[in-house]
Amino acid sequence: MTMTVGYSNALQMRLSEKFWQVNWSIILLLCLAAAVGVAMLYSAANGSWEPWAARQAIRFAVGMVVLLSVAVVDIRFWLRYAYVFYFLSLFLLAVVEVMGITGMGAQRWLDLGLFQLQPSEIMKVTLVLALARYFHGIDFEDVWKFTYLIVPLALILAPVALILRQPDLGTAIMLVLGGGALFLLAGVRLWKLTFLFFGMLAVIPVGWHFLHTYQKKRLLVFLDPESDPLGTGYHIIQSQIALGSGGIFGKGFLKGSQSQLNFLPEKQTDFIFTMLAEEFGLVGGLGLIGIYLLLVTYGFSIALQSRSQFGRLAALGLTTTFFLYFFINIAMVTGLIPVVGVPLPLVSYGGTAMLTLMFSFGIIMGVYVHRDLSIGRRWASQVA
Amino acid sequence: MLFSALVGRLYYLQITESDRYAMLAEDNRINLRMLPPPRGRIIDRHGVPMALNQLNYHAILISELTPDLEATFSSLESVLPISDRDRQRILHEIRHKHSFVPVTIRENLDWDDVARIEVNTPSLPGVFIEVSQSRYYPFAEVAGHVLGYVAAVSEEEQGDDPLLELPGFRIGKNGVEKIYDLALRGKAGTSHIEVDATGRVIRELERDEGQSGQELVLTIDSGLQDYIIHRLEGLSAAAVVMDALSGEVLALVSTPGFDPNVFNKGLSEEAWRDLVSNSRGPLVNKSISGQYAPGSTFKMMIALAALEDGIISPDQRFFCEGHMELGDSRFHCWKEEGHGTMEIVSALQQSCDVYFFEVARRTGIDRISEMARRFGLGAKLGIDLPYERDGLMPTRDWKLAVIGSSWQLGETILAGIGQGYVLSTPLQLAVMMARLINGGVAVEPYVTHDLVDGESTLQRPEPVFPSLGVSSASLAIVKKGMDAVTNTPLGTAFRSRIQEKGKEMGGKTGTSQVRRISKWERESGVLKNRQRPWKERDHALFVGYAPYQNPRFAVSVVVEHGGGGSKVAAPVGRDILLETQHRIEEEGATTTAGNAMARRDG
Lengths: 384, 602
Prior knowledge:
Radius of gyration of chain A: 21 Å
Largest interface: A-B, 29 and 28 residues
Largest sheet of chain B: 5 strands, mixed
Order of helices and strands of chain A: HHHHHEEEHHHHHHHHHHH
Largest sheet of chain A: 3 strands, antiparallel
Oligomer: heterodimer
Shape of chain A: globular
Number of strands of chain A: 3
Helix content of chain A: 55-70%
Structural class of chain B: alpha+beta
Helix content of chain B: 25-40%
Number of helices of chain A: 16
Structural class of chain A: mainly alpha
Distance between the termini of chain A: 23 Å
Strand content of chain B: 15-25%
C-alpha cells in the first residue's frame, strides 16, 4: 500500500471482515476483569446483586456493544472529529461548572434524566484523541520545537483547570500525566518534558494555595496517615489493615471482615482493589494486576503495529491512560501515593468510567482492526 | 519498574506485615463486651436474705425499629406517662446516638407498667422491656450499717477490674458490702461480639457467663437486729450483742439508721445533704465508729488492774464521804452525801466514784490502760466492717508524745471513773464484757461466717482464742460485783433486772459526761440533764451479760446524750438480753446445732 490510500479504500473492507479482525484475546481479558469487578461488587453489598453488581454487569454488556461498534468504525472518522469531540467534552465540563450535581464534596456529575454523566471521564478519552490528532498533523522534525508545544499544552490545561475547580485532583493528575505521556510518545524529547515537569514543580507552592482544604489535608495525611486515625487517615489505615490481613490467599469470598463490616470506606469504588486483596489475598491482587498487564501489553503492541501516526498515538495514549488509571488506584490503596480518588478501571462501580473505558478499548481495537491503514499527515485538514 | 513497586508493596503488606494487620483487623471486628455477674446474696444466721438482687424492669426504645417516632411516642404516653424532661432527654439521645442503640425511656417500672406495655406491643414498635438486676435490701433501715450499700463506681475506685468501667455497675461502699466486695462481686463474663464500623452488633461469636458472686452468711440475727432498732427508735444510740464464747456478733445497731436502698437508685443531692448534715449522724455506724468515754463501765478495768497487781485486796475498804481532795482539786462522787465504807464488790454494785478514784490513784494510768487494752479497749478489734475506730487508752508516754505535756495525777483519777482521755467504742465495750465473762479469753468479734480468701470466701474455722492471763479469782470478784449491780436492791440497775428464771443478767451502768461541770456551776446548782441542750447532755451506757449462771451473751448499749446509764441504758440492755435469750431458745428448738444451720453445709 502507498501513502495515498484513500478513505474509500477502507470502506471496501467489509463489516464481517472487520469483526474477523477483532482481537478476541483482549475481549476475553476485559471480560475477566469485569467479572472480577462484578464479583467484588456482589461481595461489597454483603452478598447481593443490589445495588451495584447487577447494574455493573449490564453496563459492561452495554460497554461491550459500544466497544465492538467503535472498533469497526474507520479510525479516520475519529481523526476527523477528534477536535469536535474534544470541544464537546470541554463544553460539558463547563456545563458541570454551572449546573452539575454535587456529590462527595465535589461537583462532578451532570444529570441527564436517564443517567448521570461525569464529563471528566469522557475528557480522558477525547483529550488523547485530540492530542493524537495534533501530533499526527505536524512534522516529526517540528515536534521538538517549543512553539509547537503551546497548542497541546493548552489542550491539556483547559480541561485540567476546569476539573481542578470541581475539584477532582485525581482526574486532573490523570489528564496531566496521560497528556504528558503522549508528548513523550509523540517524540518530544525527554529533557524538554523534564524541563516542563520542573516548571510545573515550581508552580506547586503557588498551586498549593488553590487546593481545597480537604486536598491539602489528604496530602499531609498521606505523609503520616496514623497522625489522624479517625479523620482522613482512616481510609489509608483501614485499607492497609484490610490488605495486610488478607495475607497470601485471602479470607475468602464474602468473608473479608474489613469490607463486610464497613471498616473499609468506599469499597465499591476507589477501594475495591483492597477488598479483592482482602478476600483473595496476594494471589487475587496479583491475578488482577496480571490481567491489566496483559491488556497494557496488547495495547502497546497494537500501537506498534499501527501504520498511522494517529492510530499509534491514540492506542499509546489510551493504553497509557488505562495504565495510569489502575497504577494510581492500586498505589493509592496500598499507601504508596496519597488518596486522590481514582477508580480501578473495569472493576470499580461507576457508569461513565466503565463506558469511557470500553470506548477507549473500542478505539484501541479500531486501531488494531485498521492497523494496515496509512493516513497522510495532512489528511484530516484536507477532508475537514 | 512501576510494577515492581506495586508488587513489592503488596508483598510487604500481605506477607511481611500480614500478621500485624491480621491482628488489627480482628481488633476492628471483635468487641469484647462484659457481662456483669449477679452479685452474691447476703443472708443472716438463719438464712434470711438481707441483701439480694431484684429484677429491675426498664423500657427502652430502638429508634430504627420505629417507623414513626411521633406515633410511637403518643401511643406510649397513653400507656406510660413521660415527663417533659424525660421526653427531651429521649429525643436528644435518639438524635445523638446510632439508630440501633437502645435509649432508656424509664427505669424501675412496676408490674402494672410492664403489663401495660406488653399488652400494647403492637402499637409500640421499637419499644422493649429490658430486665437488669439491682440490689435490694428487704430490711431497709434495720441493717444499713452492717450491710452497707452499693453505689456507682467513683473515679478513684477505678482499678484493674474492667468490670468497674461497666456503665451502671455498682460496688460495695460500706459495711460488709464493702469489705467482702470482691467475693460478692463475682467474675465478669465476656461476650465476644462481631461489630461493624458503626458499632452495630452483627453476631455473638463466643460467650462466657462468668461467675456469680459468692453468697455471704452473716452471724447477725436479723430478727434481733430488727427488735433492737425498734427498741432504740427515736434515740441516737448504738448497741452490740455478741456471743461471748464464739465472737459472733448477733446484732450491731446504730440509730438513726439509713435505708441502703436509696443509694442504689441514686441519691438526690438534697437527700444526700440531709443525711450528711443530720446532727444525729445516720450515716455513721456509731457501734464501731462512735468513740465515747466509757464512764463507770470502765470501773471493771480499774478493779482488775488493781487486783491483778496486788494493789488492793478483795476486802480492802475505802471510805466515801462524797468527794475526794487532791491538792486544790476536789473530785466528786455522783452521790453527794457519800457511800460510806466500800469494798470492791459494793463499790461496783453502787458505782462508788470515790472508791475508784482512790484505787486508780494507787494503780496508776499505765497499768490501767494496759489492762484495758487486754480487754479490747483502745485499739481496733479488726471486725470485718469498715471505718472501725481505735478508741483511746492513754499512757504517760502517749500524753507526752501526743499532747506534749506530762501526765497529771488528776487525770488518772478521772480515768478511774472512765472519764478524761479514755475513749471506747460500743463494740469495744461489748468485747470487754465478753472477755470478762468467758473465762478470760481474747474473743474477737466478727459479723460473717465466711472469711475472704482472695476473690472467694471460705468458711471461718472454729475460733481458738488465747487466754488474757488474768486470774480467775480476780475475774470472779469482778463478776460478783456486776451481778450485784442488777440483782441486789442497792445495785444501780436493780430496777432493770431480769426476773425470768434462768435468764438473769449481770452488768454495769455508766454515765459519761460530755463536758466537765465547772466549780461555779456546781455551786450555783447543777442543771438537771434535761435542762441542758441535747448536745451537752450525758451519754447513758450499759454493758451486760446473760444468763447470770452460765454467761454466754454480752451486750453494750450507748445512748448518746441520753442521761443516766441506770435510768436510760440499763432497761434497753435488759430488753436486748432477754430478747436475745428468747430468740436463741427458739433457734435451739428448731435446730439441734444452734447457729450451725446458717452454715452453708448445714
